[in-house]
Design goal:
five-stranded mixed beta sheet, 9 helices, 15 strands, Dna Ligase, domain 1, seven-stranded mixed beta sheet, globular, Nucleotidyltransferase, domain 5, 32% helix, alpha/beta, 34% strand
Length: 289
């Protein structure tokens, strides 16, 4: 039986909406992708109501389908953490709140994404390795609240987890280098589970490329090709990084994870499209850890 899932990917200036359909054979097809002017910056301002109205207008054709929300703020704050291995979701949420209070000024202004990491070789017994990703609360809470008045929102969070979960479909290691204007990040996942994650805030292109070169020459890649995404990932940048590291570097693209119906893709950004699609696939798969 086929099922369909809507996903909305919000970055600072743009919202990308996609619809993904699954089949009984485990494959996925993108049937729609559209971009809307306005993103997280608008949701945190008086223009938020206008963007919410435009988004609901796009979604009205699929009134009964659930919606996943993927947030890509200009900057993320990260905090490694250790939680009891048997902690229930509600308990982990309380632990995240406690960690936020120690880590952040005005902790009530931030939302968190609790990212599970695979165990390390010398990890203490009885503990789970986590990475907490903090992002501004107000824009995310506003749009989720507005959509819940009309739709079933079945997943929300930072795009990082959804993108890395794509490795579950191919059964091969997935190494993703993200090059954003204000940060760079690198992750390695296998079977949908993240084993390696690094994040650096950056001030300029030289810092961004230094991070990329450092990670690609030291991370445990084991020969896996590096998939690159992000608005700062220009062809010239990728050429320099590849030359400095002697690594195979390729753009992160929709295939092999999803096919496209003819004329479906009207998104403006490959980065935003893959984030929206991966969030839809994660929600279709149940978004379980």
């Amino acid at each position: 039986m086929s099922r369909s899932q809507i996903a909305c990917a919000f970055d600072a200036k743009t919202t990308t909406v996609t619809r993904v359909k699954s089949t009984s054979h485990g494959s996925f097809t993108m049937t729609m992708c559209r971009a809307i002017d306005g993103g997280l910056d608008d949701l945190g301002s008086p223009r938020g109501a206008s963007l919410s109205k435009k988004l609901l207008g796009v979604l009205k054709e699929w009134r009964d389908e659930p919606v996943a929300l993927s947030f890509s703020p200009a900057e993320i704050l990260t905090l490694p953490a250790w939680f009891p291995a048997d902690a229930a979701p509600a308990d982990r949420d309380n632990l995240c709140k406690i960690e936020a209070g120690y880590f952040l000024d005005k902790a009530d202004s931030w939302q968190w994404h609790d990212l599970a990491l695979e165990p390390e070789a010398l990890q203490p017994d009885g503990l789970d390795r986590r990475m907490l990703l903090f992002y501004p609360l107000a824009p995310a809470r506003f749009i989720e609240s507005e959509l819940r008045k009309h739709r079933n929102v079945n997943w929300s969070g930072v795009h990082v987890e959804a993108v890395t979960r794509l490795s579950a479909a191919t059964k091969e290691p997935l190494a993703v280098l993200e090059l954003e204007e204000q940060y760079a990040a690198f992750s390695i996942s296998r079977n949908g589970k993240i084993g390696y994650f690094r994040y650096w805030p950056v001030k300029d292109a030289s810092e961004r490329e230094y991070f990329a070169v450092t990670e690609l020459t030291s991370a445990p890649l084991d020969g896996a090709p590096v998939k690159v995404t992000g608005p700062a990932a220009s062809g010239k940048v990728l050429e320099r990084i590849s030359r400095e590291t002697s690594r195979t570097i390729e753009p992160l693209e929709l295939r092999p994870w999803v096919s496209e119906e003819k004329g479906a893709n009207k998104g403006k950004s490959p980065t935003a499209t893959i984030r929206a699609v991966s969030s839809a696939i994660m929600a279709l798969n149940g978004a379980t850890e």
